[in-house]
Specification:
Elements: H1 48-69, H2 76-93, E1 94-95, E2 100-101, E3 103-108, E4 122-127, H3 132-139, H4 148-158, E5 164-165, E6 168-169, H5 192-206, H6 213-238, E7 244-245, E8 252-253, H7 265-270
Antiparallel strand pairs: 1-2, 3-4, 5-6, 7-8
Helix pairs in contact: 1-2, 1-3, 5-6
Length: 273
Amino acid sequence: MRTQAGEPLPGSLEHGYRWRGRTMDHTLTSGIDDYPRARPPSTRELHVDLFSWVTYMLSVDTELAAFARNGLEPNQTREQQLELHLRLLDELHWNSERNMYCDVTVQPRDGYDELEDEGEGEESVFVCHKGYVGLFPMLLGLVPPESPKLGHILDMIEDPDELWSEFGIRSLSTQDEFYGKGEDYWRGPIWININYLVLSSLHKHYMSDGPHQEQANRIYNRLRQNLVRNILDQFRQTRFFWEQYNPHDGHGQGTHPFTGWTSLVVLIMAEKY
């Protein structure tokens, strides 16, 4: 946690988390290489996917500690830390105007004069690109089933003008300025590992509880059917499993044969999450 900690935002004492090694077009440490981030890069930006991973690890650690205690007194420090992270996830990264989770960066304040004005010369701003990065709080089960935020996330997933396709969930919204641009690696193509996380999260957390059950069930069933159909269709045509799939016609692309995360289709078929 300390090695990935980010600096506090202007006017705040709270810390988030920042992927190291950023360039203008890549955040290789995140694994989502060319997904759009803040431009230009800043050492003061904070990344919602990394914050989500850290919070998820805290939740697993808390569960393991509870199991090891076997009925003994709870570890208040772990539980309080998890509660703090769940609160800060919303406070730092939820954009109530766009109704989505976003990265955050800093920029110079308009009209700031360091000789005459008080306070810092920078202000925090959201960096919002609808796609996989903004889904991570939901993918890792950190959004409560009853939360209105979940409804906004499910709407984004199910919207064919944003992330939905008949072949799987796109990595980036078709409305984004970077969709299909540059290397086009995580800027539109369909990745089975992330789609698996969508299905897993819906199945574990959102299909049985809360006011969004009907929508969660509908997305789960349609997405599972679309993924299995397209992956098997492409295998029959090419005899390969592929690294990723095209968001427009579903054809396999990238590395092949690829029996890494694309083999998750077997678990999807068996509904093993």
